[in-house]
Recover the amino acids of this structure.
């Protein structure tokens, strides 16, 4: 009986019937269509399945190849796909050198410091070329790195970051940027995993008007990496103000060096771009997964660059004369692909901003847009929600005009979408809701802006050359309009897909391909659908609506945080025996983690444990992950096999129905926890309002795949 109930429960979770209200279409203006890079519907034919994989030649031909490739797609070792085999190129050459002849005087980057009284810095392609060459010479001659080595960056949003990336690319060195807001310990773990012996960081940067010490994290990072067996030989420290050290943390003699000091020796140096095979790794980017260890997603040079250039052209609709601002951090994949590599491959002008959206007030973003003449704007729902809350009328006060806007990183609520469209976009701008992941290199789902209408809350169909499908847990295909949600997969390989998880090819296969592989011995790509790990539903018109992660990842303000990583951090607190983290719905940040801990026997729930857990998370992961609450509970709800039922506590934290708990090993504890937590949350005014169907389904699904 209990078993049967459990099965029923699982079935309803895996195959939730969805009854969304269908949103209305919005259409692009004639003006937008008239100027768009993709305005001829022929393009769908060119990228149709019958032309796969050759269709991607169009993207590869946006690049300059030192040696042209002979095989578009090599599937001989699935699922380790190889793109543009036989080709050689250099990513830095493609993003910088080749633009000099005609555009050396054009702005590559316009960097806006957070302090409004500081001057905006314009970096022309010529200036970028000089800085990148000098830094490449420094890396090569002072640090001794060469093609294939890894270098870790822990940089904030400053010009030094793209300069460092491109310098590595010039040498064929694999860069690994760790989000600047992450802790030193998180950076250290990633240094060790990648085997980097060089760390590039910064003394300090502005956030919310405050000059934050970044260098201090380097000391901890080096220490943590050493414990993991990797020695960092040199720490290169860029300075926020050249010649003036803005961090109170001492420099370590013989290990730490100021980049601006070293530069004196490399002034005017030029470094030949190293011609790399298309399949050589360009960079890696860590992302959270379902186990404690983050995954180093390894991206290729040729396939990746071709894919981000092609999607920047057609989906971001970037033209040479546009002023493009992607308001994201380069420390995330969005920044790598759509602030640096994609726009620069197209010789665009890319605006970057150091600070927070609402500093010093809610009009800041719109003043930047007005002043610089930004006409393409790209950001995440969390930023949109924040700007909407802080200044719903602000955009009207400023004279800027966007032709195109992007949203990325989490599902956007239709209400928020409409504000973005009507108020930020002044009803004139087209919107693309781009669904993709760190692993993917570039967009997977979106409307093609001039050719497919927008629908709030839906990303749209698969992008050019991407053929998605939704499967249920029994591998049945869920067709468009079925009204059911399932696991979204991509049926085919594409040039931007990551090559492997650094150092762990088995985990790569297991995580992304095993679940729906039709035949492990097959060399036909059709047998190897890519499992994205997101829940989705497809409307009758073919548009996908993404419901969020099906695994244990919490998306806070567009940052993917691994539950196991957070729980592992909580368990470093001496008193804590067990920890479980769940997402709570938050109007602004999307989701905020909430931690449940059970103490070791003999420890009293005295004061201080909550703070210790929060501090451990700040220290080991970063402030973005700091839980809103830490609840000390007598025990966790568990299955009979001893697994913590996160979805039950997720329901408690979000004031939702906990469902049937009779199959648990300790059902009685659920009610105890519910009373305690909900009473306290009510007291603190944390009862969520207006939970949408999507949110309810997401919470229900949370932790369902264990
Ligand atoms: C979610 C960010 C809905 C999704 C580029 C995915 C989205 C995870 C969207 C990847 C979107 C990203 N609509 N959900 N437009 N874009 N997601 O690796 O759950 O930081 O799996 O890459 O964010 O996050 P990541």
């Amino acid at each position: 009986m209990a078993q049967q109930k459990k099965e029923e429960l699982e079935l309803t979770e895996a195959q939730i019937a969805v009854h969304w209200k269908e949103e209305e279409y919005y259409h692009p203006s004639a003006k937008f269509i008239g100027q768009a890079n993709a305005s001829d519907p022929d393009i769908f034919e060119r990228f149709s399945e019958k032309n796969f994989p050759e269709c991607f030649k169009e993207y590869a031909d946006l690049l300059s190849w030192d040696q042209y490739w002979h095989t578009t797609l090599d599937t001989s070792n699935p699922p380790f796909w190889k793109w543009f085999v036989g080709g050689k190129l250099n990513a830095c050459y493609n993003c910088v050198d080749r633009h000099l002849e005609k555009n050396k005087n054009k702005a590559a980057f316009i960097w806006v410091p957070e302090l409004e009284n500081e001057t905006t810095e314009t970096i022309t392609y010529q200036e970028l070329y000089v800085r990148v060459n000098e830094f490449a010479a420094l890396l090569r001659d002072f640090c001794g790195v060469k093609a294939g080595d890894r270098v870790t960056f822990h940089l904030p949003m400053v010009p030094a970051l793209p300069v460092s990336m491109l310098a590595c690319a010039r040498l064929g060195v694999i860069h690994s940027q760790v989000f600047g807001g992450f802790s030193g310990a998180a950076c250290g773990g990633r240094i060790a995993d990648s085997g980097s012996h060089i760390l590039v960081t910064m003394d300090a940067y502005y956030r919310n008007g405050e000059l934050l010490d970044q260098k201090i994290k380097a000391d901890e990072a080096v220490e943590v990496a050493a414990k993991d067996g990797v020695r960092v030989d040199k720490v290169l420290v860029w300075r926020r103000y050249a010649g003036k050290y803005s961090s109170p943390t001492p420099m370590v003699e013989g290990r730490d060096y100021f980049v601006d000091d070293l530069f004196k020796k490399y002034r005017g140096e030029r470094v030949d771009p190293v011609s790399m095979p298309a399949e050589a790794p360009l960079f890696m980017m860590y992302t959270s997964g379902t186990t404690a260890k983050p995954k180093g997603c390894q991206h290729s040079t040729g396939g990746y660059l071709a894919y981000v250039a092609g999607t920047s052209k057609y989906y971001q609709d970037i033209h040479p004369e546009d002023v493009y601002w992607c308001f994201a951090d380069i420390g995330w994949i969005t920044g790598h692909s759509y602030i640096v590599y994609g726009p620069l491959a197209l010789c665009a002008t890319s605006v970057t901003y150091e600070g927070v959206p609402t500093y010093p007030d809610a009009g800041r973003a719109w003043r930047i847009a007005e002043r610089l003449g930004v006409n393409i704007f790209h950001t995440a729902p969390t930023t949109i929600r924040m700007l909407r809350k802080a200044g719903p009328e602000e955009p009207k006060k400023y004279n800027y005009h966007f032709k195109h806007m992007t949203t990325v990183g989490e599902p956007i609520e239709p209400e928020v979408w409409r504000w973005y469209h009507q108020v930020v976009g002044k009803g004139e701008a087209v919107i693309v809701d781009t669904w993709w992941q760190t692993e993917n290199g570039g967009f997977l789902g979106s409307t093609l802006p001039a050719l497919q209408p927008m629908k709030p809350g839906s990303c749209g169909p698969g992008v050019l050359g991407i053929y998605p499908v939704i499967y249920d847990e029994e591998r049945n295909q869920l067709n468009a309009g079925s009204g059911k949600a399932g696991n979204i997969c991509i049926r085919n390989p594409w040039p931007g897909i990551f090559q492997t998880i650094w150092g762990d090819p088995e985990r790569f296969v297991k995580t992304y391909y095993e679940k729906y592989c039709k035949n492990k011995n097959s060399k036909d790509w059709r047998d190897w659908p890519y499992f994205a790990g997101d829940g989705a539903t497809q409307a009758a018109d073919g548009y996908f609506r993404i419901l969020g992660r099906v695994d244990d990842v919490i998306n806070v303000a567009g940052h993917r945080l691994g539950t196991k990583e957070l729980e592992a951090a909580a368990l470093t607190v001496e008193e804590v025996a067990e920890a479980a983290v769940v997402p709570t719905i938050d109007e602004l940040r999307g989701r905020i983690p909430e931690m449940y801990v059970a103490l070791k026997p003999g420890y009293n729930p005295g004061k201080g444990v909550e703070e210790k857990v929060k501090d451990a998370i700040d220290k080991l992961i970063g402030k973005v992950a700091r839980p809103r609450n830490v609840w000390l509970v007598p025990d966790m709800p568990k299955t009979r096999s001893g697994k913590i039922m996160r979805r039950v506590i997720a329901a408690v934290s979000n004031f939702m129905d906990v469902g049937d708990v009779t199959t648990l090993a300790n059902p009685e504890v659920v009610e105890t926890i519910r009373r305690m937590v909900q009473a306290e949350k009510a007291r603190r005014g944390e009862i969520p309002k207006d939970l949408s169907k999507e949110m309810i389904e997401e919470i229900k699904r949370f932790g369902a795949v264990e």
Remarks:
- The CA atoms of residues 433 and 459 lie 5 Å apart.
- Residues 1-20 have pLDDT under 50 and may be disordered.
- The first helix runs from residue 2 to 14.
